[in-house]
C-alpha cells in the first residue's frame, strides 16, 4: 500500500494554485469546487492506495507548436492533477540536487524554487538562457556555435526511463524510494491507450520529471569536456572549430538514443560562426537601444512561452516606457499581414490591448481570424476584456467566432481554437448562441470540444439543451460528465433533483455537486 500524507497533498494543492492548472487549457470551473471543499477533499485523497489506484481518463487534445505543427496535450482530472503534483512536489529537492548546479550558468530550465508552493522558480528562464548564449558567443567571436533540439521531447520520453532517473535521484532516501515506481504506474495509466512512453504535456508537474530525465545526458556531455547550455529541450554548443561543435552534437544524439530512446530534430540542427550569430542578432549598442529591439526584448523576457495561456507579467517603469513607444495597433496589423506571423508578438499585443478595452480593433481581429488560431488563448483574453460592446457588435463577434467551429472540412478550426473560444462563451451568458453551442456538443467527435461546449451551455443554454445532456451523461468521459453536471443546472430544480437521484454519480461528482457555485 502507498498513500500520500495530507502534508504532501497540501503542498501539491498549493503548487497548482501557484503555477496554474494547465499550460494549454482554460482553468476548469470544477477547480472552484476543489478550493471550496479542500478541507473535506484532502483526507479523502489521503485514503487512496496509489499502488492500485486507477486514474480518471483525461481529455487528450492538440495544441499548436506553430501555425501548422501540433503537439499532443493532456487535461487531467482534478483528482489526478492533485495526486500527480503532490508526488512530484515531494521529489523536487532531490531532483535539483542531482542536476548541474544553477550557479554554473549552464542549465536554465525549471530550477528549484525557494517557496513551498513552487515546483520550480520563475528564474532563471529563457531570457537568461538567451543572454548566456550571447555572452558565450561574444567570448569567442572567431569560434563556432551549434544548435540542437530534441524531437517531441515530452511525448516520446519512456516512462521506465523517467523512473530510472528518479530512482537515481532518491537513492539513499528511504521514505522516497517508492515514489518512482508509483509515478511510473500513474504515468502509464494516464497515457493515451496505455502507451509506455510520454508524460502529460500541460500539467506543470511534468516539467521537473523531464528535467530529471536529462540529468545523465547533461552530466555525460560535461564529463566529455563539451561546452554547452540548455533550456528544456534546446541545446547550444560552443567550440573553437566547426568540427568540434559537430562532434558535440553527434555525441548528444548518440547519448539521447542510447539513454532515452530520443532523437534530435534534423531541421533544427545547425552550426555557424559565433560572429555570424552575433551579427544576425544585432550585436551593437545602437540596435540594442532601438524601439524595435526594446519591444522584441520585452516580448522575449515576458512572453516567451506564449502557448502557456498566461497573462502578461507586471512590467517595470522602463518596460512600460518601451511598450508605450510603439504603436500596437499598427504593429498588430502589420504582423497579421506578414507571410510568416510572429505569434509571440501577436499574442503579446492581444493580451496587452485587452487591458485597454480597445473595441475599435475588433474588426481587425475578426478579419484575420484564421491566422489567429494558434494564439486562441490571446483571442480569449482580448474578447473577454474588450467590454463594453453593444448587442449588435457582440452578436457579430459571436457568429464570427463560432463559425470556424461549426464549419466542416478544411474550413473547420483546430481543437485549440474551439476550446478557448467555447470557454469564452462559458464565462459570460451574454454571449448566448445556445442553439449553435448545442449543435457543436452533439456533432463534434472531439471529447475536448464536447466538454467545453457543455461548459458554454452551462452559462447560456436552456432547458431544451439540458434535456439532451441527460441522455449523454452516462456514456460520456469523466471530465465531460463534470461539465454536463454543471450544465444540468438549466433543468428545473425538482427535475434536476430527481435526475441526480437516478444517475450514478461517483464520489468526486458528488463532491463537486455539493461544493459547486
How would the blueprint of this fold be written?
Layout: H1 6-19, H2 30-36, H3 38-46, E1 59-64, E2 70-75, H4 78-89, H5 92-98, H6 126-139, E3 144-149, H7 153-156, H8 159-170, H9 179-190, H10 206-213, H11 215-223, E4 227-231, E5 234-239, H12 242-260, E6 270-273, H13 274-280, H14 285-288, H15 291-302, H16 317-324, H17 328-337, H18 343-354, H19 362-367, H20 376-385, H21 391-406, H22 415-427, H23 434-443, H24 447-460, H25 463-472, H26 478-487, H27 493-502, H28 507-515
Antiparallel strand pairs: 1-2, 3-5, 3-6, 4-5
Q: What labels describe this entry?
A:
single chain, four-stranded antiparallel sheet, 517 residues, two-stranded antiparallel ribbon, alpha+beta
Amino acid at each position: 500500500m502507498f498513500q500520500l500524507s495530507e502534508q504532501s497533498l497540501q503542498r501539491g494543492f498549493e503548487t497548482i494554485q501557484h503555477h496554474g492548472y494547465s499550460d494549454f487549457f482554460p482553468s476548469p470551473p470544477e477547480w472552484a469546487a476543489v478550493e471550496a471543499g479542500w478541507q473535506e477533499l484532502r483526507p479523502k485523497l489521503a485514503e487512496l492506495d496509489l499502488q492500485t489506484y486507477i486514474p480518471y481518463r483525461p481529455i487528450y487534445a492538440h495544441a499548436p507548436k506553430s501555425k501548422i505543427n501540433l503537439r499532443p496535450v493532456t487535461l487531467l482530472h482534478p483528482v489526478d492533477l492533485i495526486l500527480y503534483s503532490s508526488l512530484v512536489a515531494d521529489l523536487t529537492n532531490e531532483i535539483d540536487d542531482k542536476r548541474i548546479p544553477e550557479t554554473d550558468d549552464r542549465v536554465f530550465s525549471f530550477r528549484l524554487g525557494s517557496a513551498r508552493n513552487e515546483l520550480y522558480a520563475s528564474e532563471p528562464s529563457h531570457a537568461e538562457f538567451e543572454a548566456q548564449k550571447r555572452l558565450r558567443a561574444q567570448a569567442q567571436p572567431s569560434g563556432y556555435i551549434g544548435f540542437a533540439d530534441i524531437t517531441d521531447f515530452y511525448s516520446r520520453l519512456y516512462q521506465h526511463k523517467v523512473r530510472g532517473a528518479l530512482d537515481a535521484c532518491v537513492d539513499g532516501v528511504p521514505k522516497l524510494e517508492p515514489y518512482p515506481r508509483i509515478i511510473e504506474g500513474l504515468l502509464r495509466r494516464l497515457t493515451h491507450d496505455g502507451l509506455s512512453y510520454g508524460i502529460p504535456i500541460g500539467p506543470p508537474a511534468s516539467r521537473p520529471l523531464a528535467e530529471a530525465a536529462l540529468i545523465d545526458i547533461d552530466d555525460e556531455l560535461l564529463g566529455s569536456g563539451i561546452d554547452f547550455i540548455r533550456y528544456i529541450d534546446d541545446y547550444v554548443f560552443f567550440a573553437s572549430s566547426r568540427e568540434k561543435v559537430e562532434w558535440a552534437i553527434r555525441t548528444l544524439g548518440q547519448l539521447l538514443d542510447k539513454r532515452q530512446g530520443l532523437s534530435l530534430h534534423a531541421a533544427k540542427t545547425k552550426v555557424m560562426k559565433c560572429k555570424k550569430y552575433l551579427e544576425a542578432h544585432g550585436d551593437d549598442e545602437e540596435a540594442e537601444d532601438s524601439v524595435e529591439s526594446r519591444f522584441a526584448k520585452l516580448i522575449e523576457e515576458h512572453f516567451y512561452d506564449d502557448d502557456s495561456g498566461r497573462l502578461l507579467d507586471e512590467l517595470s517603469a522602463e518596460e512600460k516606457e518601451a511598450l508605450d513607444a510603439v504603436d500596437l495597433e499598427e504593429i498588430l496589423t502589420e504582423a497579421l499581414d506578414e507571410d510568416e506571423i510572429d505569434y509571440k508578438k501577436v499574442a503579446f499585443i492581444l493580451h496587452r490591448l485587452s487591458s485597454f478595452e480597445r473595441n475599435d480593433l475588433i474588426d481587425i481581429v475578426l478579419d484575420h481570424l484564421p491566422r489567429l488560431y494558434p494564439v486562441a488563448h490571446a483571442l480569449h483574453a482580448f474578447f473577454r476584456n474588450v467590454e463594453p460592446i453593444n448587442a449588435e457588435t457582440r452578436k457579430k463577434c459571436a457568429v464570427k467566432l463560432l463559425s470556424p467551429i461549426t464549419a466542416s472540412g478544411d474550413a473547420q478550426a483546430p481543437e485549440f481554437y474551439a476550446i478557448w473560444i467555447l470557454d469564452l462563451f462559458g464565462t459570460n451568458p451574454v454571449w448566448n448562441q445556445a442553439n449553435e453551442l448545442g449543435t457543436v456538443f452533439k456533432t463534434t467527435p472531439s471529447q475536448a470540444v464536447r466538454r467545453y461546449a457543455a461548459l458554454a451551455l452551462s452559462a447560456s443554454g436552456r432547458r431544451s439543451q439540458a434535456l439532451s445532456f441527460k441522455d449523454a451523461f452516462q456514456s460520456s468521459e469523466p471530465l465531460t460528465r463534470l461539465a454536463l453536471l454543471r450544465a444540468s443546472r438549466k433543468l428545473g430544480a425538482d427535475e434536476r433533483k430527481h435526475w441526480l437521484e437516478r444517475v450514478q454519480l461517483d464520489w468526486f461528482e458528488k463532491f463537486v455537486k455539493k461544493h459547486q457555485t
